[in-house]
């Protein structure tokens, strides 16, 4: 692996603030300092070495992220040092990818009650790793390097059990909580501030070609095991209950649940992707 600590990256635009809860603009230098601070106080010598290799030996957030992706996705066919250099190339071409990765990390810290620092999700959360691997693969796909993009998709699917087609479009501040079993199809769109739990599928119906996958608007929360099928829209602030099968578009700020999913309760005003509230209003069941 080459020395990754000395490669510099141009500054990126700061993260955009959101309405609820308030997230300050993502300052990558400050985030990097907090990442390094999260390494302090660990008494386990093996973990100290891991933290030093994963964070402290690098000069910037971008360098550490590129090295992380290289280590995770590298194999006999494409070595980790070659992947590191590829990722740096992508970051230099589009610094917005690094800014989005920083914003994703802040989103995890804000929304996941199991996260007490930035170092933990950066090093250990495969949902985060899957999203950042996809951001690189998507850039390659858009640049016409499609076989290489598909290679990264395949490696990420093998390693993380998260399958995101490299053509899918993801916004900022995306949270894949746990990550296991998430599938996001080719023409899917996730806007900013979306949270998905494990086992979610954004898929086609199996009958259509072309634009055939869901469009997920800002602030949506999709519960564990839910399946969203077809070129339908989950409106801003919608919530999908765990295990639901969604076959029709969902209006904004509406909760749906069931198989097939149906609206329940009254319209809410909060963005559930921020609150991560997966509870449902009282439901009258009919058998």
TrEMBL record:
Gene Ontology BP terms: cysteine biosynthetic process from serine
Keyword tRNA processing: no
Pathway: Amino-acid biosynthesis; L-cysteine biosynthesis; L-cysteine from L-serine: step 1/2
Keyword Transferase (UniProt): yes
Keywords on record: Acyltransferase, Amino-acid biosynthesis, Repeat, Transferase
EC number(s) per entry: 2.3.1.30
Reaction equations catalysed: L-serine + acetyl-CoA = O-acetyl-L-serine + CoA
Superkingdom to which the source organism belongs: Bacteria
Protein name: Serine acetyltransferase
Organism listed in the record: Gluconacetobacter johannae
């Amino acid at each position: 692996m080459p020395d990754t600590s000395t490669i510099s990256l141009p500054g990126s635009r700061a993260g955009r603030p959101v309405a609820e809860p308030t997230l300050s603009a993502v300052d990558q230098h400050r985030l990097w300092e907090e990442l390094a601070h999260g390494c302090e106080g660990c008494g386990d010598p093996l973990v100290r070495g891991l933290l030093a290799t994963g964070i402290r030996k690098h000069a910037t957030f971008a360098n550490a992220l590129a090295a992380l992706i290289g280590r995770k996705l590298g194999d006999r066919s494409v070595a980790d040092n070659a992947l590191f250099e590829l990722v740096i190339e992508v970051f230099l071409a589009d610094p917005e990818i690094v800014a989005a990765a920083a914003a994703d990390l802040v989103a995890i810290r804000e929304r996941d009650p199991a996260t007490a620092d930035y170092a933990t999700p950066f090093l250990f959360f495969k949902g985060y790793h899957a999203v950042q691997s996809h951001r690189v693969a998507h850039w390659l796909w858009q640049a016409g390097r499609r076989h290489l993009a598909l290679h990264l998709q395949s490696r990420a699917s093998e390693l993380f059990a998260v399958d995101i087609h490299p053509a899918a479009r993801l916004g900022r501040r995306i949270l894949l909580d746990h990550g296991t079993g998430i599938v996001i199809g080719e023409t899917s769109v996730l806007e900013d501030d979306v949270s998905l739990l494990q086992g979610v599928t954004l898929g086609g119906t199996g009958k259509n070609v072309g634009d055939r996958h869901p469009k997920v608007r800002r602030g949506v929360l999709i519960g564990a095991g839910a399946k969203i099928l077809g070129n339908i829209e989950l409106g801003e602030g919608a919530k999908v209950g765990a295990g639901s099968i969604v076959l029709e578009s969902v209006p904004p700020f509406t909760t749906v649940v069931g198989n097939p999913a149906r609206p329940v309760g009254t319209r809410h005003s909060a963005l559930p992707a921020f609150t991560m509230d997966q509870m449902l209003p009282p439901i009258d069941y009919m058998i």
